Amino acid sequence: MTRSARIRGVIALVAVALSLYVALTVPVHLGLDLRGGTQIVLETRPSAAADADGDATDRTVEVLRGRIDALGVSEPTIARSGSDRIIVELPGVQDPREAADVLGRTAQLTFHQVLGTAATADDQPNPLPKRPREQVMADESGRLLRLGTASLTGKDVEKAAARFDQQGGAGWHVTVDFRGSGETGWARLTGEAACHAAGDPGRRVAIVLDGKVISSPQVDLSIACRSGISGGATQITGTFDDREAKELALLINGGALPVPVETVEQRTVGPTLGAEAIKASAWAAGIGTVVTALFIIAVYRLLGALATVALACYGLISYAALAALGATLTLPGLAGFVLAIGMAVDANVLVFERAREAYASGHRPTPRSSLTSGFRSAFSAIADSNITTLIAAGLLFFLASGPVRGFGVTLGIGVLASMLSALVITRALAEHAVGRPGLRRRPHLTGIAHTGAVRKRLDRTSPHLMRHPRRWLTASAAALVLAASGIAVRGLDLGVEFTGGRLIAYTTPTPVDADRARGALADAGFPRAVVQTSGAHQLTVRTPHLSNDQAAAVTAAVTDLAPGTDKIRDEAIGPSLGKELRHSALIALAVALGAQLVYLTARFRLLLGASAVAALAHDVVILLGVFAWLGKPVDGVFLAALLTVIGYSVNDSVVVFDRIRDMARRVSPGAFARVANQALLQTLPRTVNTGMGAAFILTALAVLGGDSLTDFALALLIGCAVGTYSSMFTATPLAVELHKRRT
After folding, report:
1. I want to staple 30 with a disulfide (CB 3.0 to 4.6 A). Which of 11, 34, 97, 235 is the partner?
2. Residue range 425-440: average pLDDT?
3. Residue 302, burial from CB neighbour count under 10 angstroms (0-12, 13-18, 19+)
């Protein structure tokens, strides 16, 4: 065994052992779409004064963290996103109304001396104007009070608590303890009020929360003028019930937000949907992986079996990397994890096909020398194809948000783990195996010593696929016209992420007719609601922007139609965020195409890079057109699938172009069409075998992945099929035609 082989073996053992330790000791953090709960995205609306200090959002995060802790939610998370957004995740919270109200209120608490009452327009035709620095507010009974400037604020409050006094008859009330200068300030404020006679409005102190007088108690008659209430404590009394008292105490304890905030996005996922998604994805992963493994073993025999072991190690390493990095595993991320298993097969297939070529063309070849040649020859194609996929994953991470970003993280980790699996673990296992004396005497068992069914058939027929490249381009143009007509005629059904509004999904115990549901919602005051059914027991309602109370009314209307209905998903996107996400999606698409062009031009040349990017644009338009004809939604998850298809499609083009580049060095420039055809034929076995491996996984996802993954898997399945076709019969013939024009 060579020194390099020993090093690879040690790296493989260390990677697997470390991954196993991490997998057993560090849990993976599940996203809310898998464990159920509510995500709220808040956007700060800073004033000029707040902008000046530059840390308003950071201070808002700290205040919100205190409020969330007071809500009693298990394992909440709060994080800043960008310069003015805050993401709050509340696991297990299924009714977001109370949480959204508590988080969004600024809770600006102030204490004022009452200067007197103010006449209303009904009392006197020409009421006296209020004095400068004087406010007029209605008290609990609706009477207008003239208030002086605020003497104390929420910053002077130490803590507040909801209490119930059975003996004293005060009922539910809130005790407030002051701190620092608040203690003397409260004594001074109540002392000045005590100088007024009993019954005089001036003897009252107004407690104002968010511009509303919540209590205006009279200072007790036992308090002498100028002495005030000492001790730094007081009670807020009023017509509180237990919920109102606890909520008020919570808000006061949380403190005042430095700046107002607005809810721009809100998502709720039921725990049942998350559990079903995990179960469905697990079944899809298990069945898809088993079928893929059997296929690889059938094609590549012993090396296929070793590649299957390496794939199992790949899954372990990917899982451990997610856990170690503290990444959140989302539903699209789980699908990306499953998809990456199929894509991880590609590197092994590239090596094995190159090894077969080396064995067939060598003089007295051995499995070991052929395998070494295969790894050496396939390295550039493996590196280029994985880097292009990493570009797509990076764009998803930096330009997307929420679950789609989680998909980008999972895909990126999967790509890196697949390279480690193929180039280190598979190689260490394979080199050790083919070096055994028994396999040297029986090379047919390795899977290298025969060419395979696809290559054998191609060797017999030797078709010249690039003899008439314009025919292939005409077929691609016809497909583009058909897809574009679908976009023009049917239009794209943009998801709520891109349009703004609210989407609520339900499971019903009995089938509900969509027309009946529309009528019921119209009667409830929602005539613009769009109702769609999915299967026999799923109903989806899409509307323009709704408040949480209006959303509750929609749920009530649906429940009246089908008692026992469960809400499994609730998404609210503000109009400004929807517009921003549309722009981000277009930017991500443009940047993806541009980044691929730059990379491919640098690695190959402009002619091949432009051909590959043209094929990518072809794939994007066709996938959009198919979804337009099918009436499927184009949402954030579809965007993840689209960018993944771009990465997958360019993989195929890279493999073909890598072979063209390798062969073109040995022939004259005038033979480009013949070289392109030969490269296409030589890489066709790899294209077929990799495509089959990915197809098994994606078909399992589409069939077994449940409703939440069906459209995602369908987009990937269509995209991968179109991408495989375009790399061979759009990118390659286009490169041939462009080369003719240059010469």
Report:
1. 34
2. 83
3. buried
Q: Mean pLDDT in the chain?
A: 80
Tokens in use for 508? Answer: 């019903």
Residue 27 burial class via C-beta count within 10 angstroms: exposed 0-12, middle 13-18, buried 19 and up:
exposed
Burial environment of residue 5 by CB neighbours within 10 A (0 to 12, 13 to 18, 19 or more): middle
Mean pLDDT for 698-726 is 81
Length of the chain: 743
* Token pair in block for residue 400: 């997307």
Which of 41-45, 121-125, 358-362, 635-639 has the lowest average pLDDT?
Answer: 121-125
pLDDT per residue as tens digits for the range 337-394:
666 676 678 888 888 888 888 888 866 678 888 888 888 888 888 888 788 778 877 8
Exposed/middle/buried for 661, CB within 10 Å: 0-12, 13-18, 19+?
middle
Do the bridges between strand 633-634 and strand 493-494 make them parallel or antiparallel, or are there none, so unpaired? parallel
Q: Is the dihedral of CA 616, 617, 619, 624 positive or negative?
A: positive
Q: Report whether 588 contacts 643 (CB < 8 A).
A: yes
Give the model's pLDDT for residue 623: 93
Q: Please check the confidence at residue 60 and state whether its pLDDT lies above 80.
A: no
Buried b (16+ CB within 10 A) or exposed e, 604-624: beebbbbbbbbbbebbbbbbb
Task: Report the C-alpha gap between 566 and 722 in whole angstroms.
Answer: 38
Q: What's the rounded Cα separation, in Å, for the pair 144 and 639? A: 55
What mean pLDDT is predicted for residues 296-310?
88
CA distances from 430 to 8, 159, 289, 424, 701 (A): 11, 67, 20, 10, 30
Candidate from 85-89, 580-584, 665-669, 684-688 with smallest mean pLDDT: 665-669
Count Cβ atoms below 10 Å from residue 696 Cβ, excluding itself.
23
Round to whole Å and give the CA distance between 16 and 415.
17
Q: How far apart are CA 30 and CA 283, in angstroms?
A: 18
State the pLDDT confidence band at 104, using cuts at 50, 70 and 90: low
Question: Distance between CA 732 and CA 720 in Å, rounded?
Answer: 17
Report strand pairing: 171-178 vs 233-236.
Answer: antiparallel
577 pLDDT higher than 90: no
Give me the mean pLDDT over the 120-139 stretch. 57
Task: For the chain, state the CA radius of gyration.
Answer: 34
Instruction: Say whether 265 sits in a helix, a strand or coil.
Output: strand
Amino acid at the residue 245: A
Residue 706: CB partners within 8 Å, gap ≥ 6? Answer: 276, 277, 280, 281
Alpha-carbon distance 329 to 373, whole Å? 38
Q: In whole angstroms, what is the distance from residue 393 CA to residue 302 CA?
A: 33
Check: CB of residue 725 under 8 Å from CB of residue 694. Answer: no
pLDDT, mean of residues 141-145: 81
Least Cα distance to 105 among 72, 154, 161 occurs for: 154
Inter-axis angle of helices 672-704 and 271-325, nearest 10: 130
**Residue 567 forms beta bridges with which residues?**
506
Mean pLDDT of 434-462: 76
| Distance from C-alpha of 673 to C-alpha of 300, rounded to nearest angstrom | 31
Number of neighbouring beta carbons within 10 Å of residue 555: 18
Give the count of beta carbons closer than 10 Å to the beta carbon of residue 680. Answer: 22
- What DSSP character marks residue 527? T
